[in-house]
Amino acid sequence: MIPRYIVDFAPAELDTVQTDMIIIGAGIAGLFTALQAAKDRRVLMITKKSLFDSNTRYAQGGIAAVISEDDSPEFHRQDTLIAGAGLCDPQAVDVLVHEGPDCVQALIQYGTHFDEEDGHLALTKEGAHSQRRILHANGDATGYEIVRALAEKVQSVPNIEVWDDHFVLDLLTEEGECVGALVQKPDGSRVIVRGGGHRTLLRRYRAAVPLHDESGGGDGRRHRDGLPCRRGHSRHGVQSVPPDFSLLSRRAALSDLGGGTRGRRRPSQHSRRALHG
Description:
This protein is an alpha/beta fold. Helices cover 31% and strands 18% of the residues.
């Protein structure tokens, strides 16, 4: 039996903070949403470390969007569906290919500096893309540049309050709708944060780059809250590679997979389990 909440608590005994919107997480999704929402409401961002510490910061790849006049949303859609091999949600793909260009322009307006060539955005063709539509920032530091720009912008907006080094223990629900969160402060005390009619935004994010603060808290909160796993969010859609292991097991796995000097052995049982679950 999975407990509804990870800790026992009495709401009447805890301090309560009221805001309009709660955003859990400080990656690109949280930062961008905070900036958009803060145009007409008060926003509280809660992050385990700081605005500059997230998986987005370590993302080396670029961003795909239709920028060139030789490209089109339909080309981008076709490439995405082919590469997705039946796993893509067509409606989500339509949002991606049609809204992507405007989102890139919004990132630029918020201060992101993408690489340029001859005064124009530098576009590359990578992977399954049939057109040049990949934007980079400082080469392979795209994530770092986006976080820098968005975090600096967030810090300048009066309607956004940021709680660094706070951990969201659980989501609070009433009649099946999220109305707030139970938060642990840096000193170990707890406080209830309630949203003013707007749903709490819970960001569920995995990345190939291992971070010391990657705790899986979002997955745990979602599971205890009984939220369903949407299509595309199952384990086969989670990117997991040897760098996600501890140093010792990573070295062993790489050796088993051909990364060692001998490099001819088949993956061991432990390596296969680590890679495939």
